[in-house]
Predict the structure.
Amino acid sequence: MSVELSKAELTVLSVLWKQQPLSVRELHDRLKTGWAYTTTKTVMDRMVAKGFLERGNAHGVNIYKPLVSRPEGMARWIQFFANDVLG
């Protein structure tokens, strides 16, 4: 079974599917969530651990790109929604 994708993770991926790679700061500045910067970083670090994002380095700054395609991400979000929200 594949790992489910939460709404927060889908929000991050939605930005990265439009433009990549991005640093945490660049992605955070594009979000419309009202999250603190540290929340954005925590979500992205967890996504790296889950295999949703790849972290690289450019000029001493961590940059991120998605390892999940948009169709796969949407399927995982539907799975999360069905399991956790609809029960």
Summary: The helical segments are 7-18, 24-30, 37-50, 70-85. The first helix runs from residue 7 to 18. The CA atoms of residues 25 and 39 lie 11 Å apart.
